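Reviewer 2 asked us to include a model.

Predict the structure of this chain.
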Amino acid sequence: MTKGGLQYAIEHQHDYDVIVSQGGTAAHIESCITSIPVITIKLSITDFLDAFGRAIERDRPLALFCVASEVLPEMERVARFSGRAPDYKLLAYSHKEEFEAQYRVAATLQGHTLIGVSCYCVLDMQAELEGRGIDFALICPSQRNIQKAVLSAKSIVESKGREELKAQRMKSIVDYSAQGIVSIDDQRRVTSVNPAAERILDIRAGAVLSRRLDETAMPAALRELHGDGDFQLNQLVKLDGNDLLVNRIPVRVNDRLEETIVSFQRVTDIQRLEIKARMQLLSKGLVAKHRFEDIVGTSAALRTAIDRARRFAETSASVLIEGETGTGKELFVQSIHNASDRRDGPFVAINCAALPETLLESELFGYADGAFTGAKRGGKAGLFELAHNGTIFLDEIGEVSPAIQSRLLRVLQEREILRVGGDRVVKVNVRVLSATNKNLYQMVREGRFRDDLFFRLGVLNLRLPPLRERTEDIRPLADRFVRMASETTGKRLDDLSADDIRMLQRYAWPGNVRELEYFLEKLAILADASVRTSDLIGLLLGEHTRDHGRDAASPRPLLDATDDDDRLTLAVGPMRDMQRQIVERMLERTNGNKVEVARRLGISRVTVWNKMKEADAGPRDAEALRADAPFARAAAVRFRP
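Predicted model (structure tokens):
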């Protein structure tokens, strides 16, 4: 500090974080300013000895000029130590009037050496009195002591900056928190209210800050939220018709209650955030695109499957869909999800046959941080977690290993998952839909699939009919696929004729709807104005038959006789299945007239009825239906949707 430092410090105290000064000026500033710290440049004993050594060398009488409360004791000790104690005069002062009085005395000390601390007032004296034969030996702080004072000031500034940053960070967290936050001290006085609390409680912070809760004008909601100030987590409180989730945290220092922090949030806001998070998941592709309206076909077998699936959508039970490759299992799964009350939740699908066991496990259940080499830092949520409050579709479920089967069973039973390498159980609310083109019941009997998992997955069962059992649907399917193929290839392909459709209907389509779609896409690509569509279809079907003339999984022929009034197209298999197919085909031809079917086949209506029940029940329950008549009737009722 230089001349006028005290006045300058007073006028600009709010512009600085710390003041560095020396001697009497520092003492005066510290006594007048309390808003910011004042760092005094210290004088070491070496600084005093240097000044006294210079003064003694001049061999003149000594006078000590200093602030009484500051360095006077040090100066007197050094004077006595130097052996000149009896010779010095003491000119000490404590305020402005004393300074002026001692200044007048000093002006009369011709021939003396004045020893004083180097500051602006003593420097002014030196400039005025040296011409009167008065010598000066000033005590100056060393460069080291000045640096120490500056470093102390810098440390204070940095510490203050860190504290301000921490305070600003906490303020930002509190101000922008979605939760309402109120702090109340040990005198039940409100000390802080964040904007969310103002919004939720419909209050103004200025109206309640620094006021006690028991004041009449204080909102009753604050008193109810504070309660008795005891510790509370996730307490449901109803205020003015709103359900609030409340946390109450007492803050104690040395076992003494200092304040209570109350945080709260509207349940409706929590639900809204959950929906927002769910929609963000949906934006990543976790969404079912298809609905029942997208399923093409009017056959009785298909309509029966759709009607049953619609009823399954009304529940949250697990559904196992069985059907050959290409029958539209995922189309039905997505439709069930979109027709259920989980339609706003995520839809997650995984093909269990596409991944090896270790990778499938981590994909389904996720993994913890450091679970294995190459694991993502922080771990990863599995598909079951992503599907929370939604649906997960496990395609090709028959391909999973026994180890994965065990973990799936636990998820279905306990509704909780444990990440790979993790130690924390996560609750999940997920509906499981699964599909297979295998005979899971046979796999259970052979010990290749857990029976308990089989029954958990198949609380509800849905069998999708192959295309050869609903040939009347080939017309609408072909029309759609031809239009799609025309748009994709840019070629104009006319609707197929009745003869074209009959050719397609004669083929058994082991790949079902998917195979038909790919075949018609090939037809659209190869279509040429110089070749009739019917001829091209015949040519391609011939090639198709030669290439795929026998299904690798079954010896049955894929190309059968044309259906007409006297012939039926059947898939070769067990006799009872062929009998059932005959009844189903005849029911389709007669529009469900069981009397007419019984007459034309020469069997009783009871036999027709039993074959219909076998079709509804599925192959694994056929034996039960063929038991004695009373039991068969009971089983038929039990397995109806």
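The chain has 27 helices and 20 strands. The chain has a mean pLDDT of 79. We have added this to the supplementary material.
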